[in-house]
Design brief:
This protein is mostly helical. The protein contains seven helices and no strands. It is about 55% helix and about 0% strand.
Length: about 140
């Protein structure tokens, strides 16, 4: 009896943990919509990019790496990549990155709004355009 209860509890905990770490259906749909609106023109709807011009996000090691580094690119821009600090909220950035980091063969954890907000603050990125150095979109 005790073993059965322990197994049931472990199954419940595993289910809750999986649900907490994976994006909800609504969040995934929001992420996809944000991606199509803001990113797909360059990175393509398939996430495969355009060779020699715009990098693929599908199966991309950087995209699957440290989430804060990926978010920093959206907040400050890099090279030909514009920043989205004024056009996307912390929630939007977290949502689109969660979508990108969990699709096209990518298997990285998503980010949440609080993480992006803390990163925005630590980078000194003002959502109202008073950022010292960035690559404006």
């Amino acid at each position: 009896m005790r073993d059965t209860l322990i197994k049931a509890a472990m199954a419940i905990i595993a289910t809750i943990a999986a649900a907490a770490s994976s994006p909800s259906r609504a969040q995934e749909m929001d992420g996809k919509a944000l991606f199509l609106k803001n990113c797909a023109a360059c990175h393509q709807p398939t996430g495969k990019g355009i060779p020699g011009a715009f990098p693929a996000l599908a199966g991309n090691k950087f995209v699957q790496g440290q989430g804060s580094e990926v978010a920093a690119v959206l907040l400050k821009g890099r090279g030909g990549m514009p920043d989205f600090s004024e056009s996307l909220s912390d929630r939007d950035i977290a949502t689109v990155l969660t979508f990108v980091r969990s699709n096209w063969g990518n298997k990285a954890d998503g980010l949440n709004e609080a993480e992006v907000g803390a990163l925005r603050t630590s980078l000194g990125v003002d959502p109202f355009g008073n950022t010292a150095m960035s690559n404006k979109h």
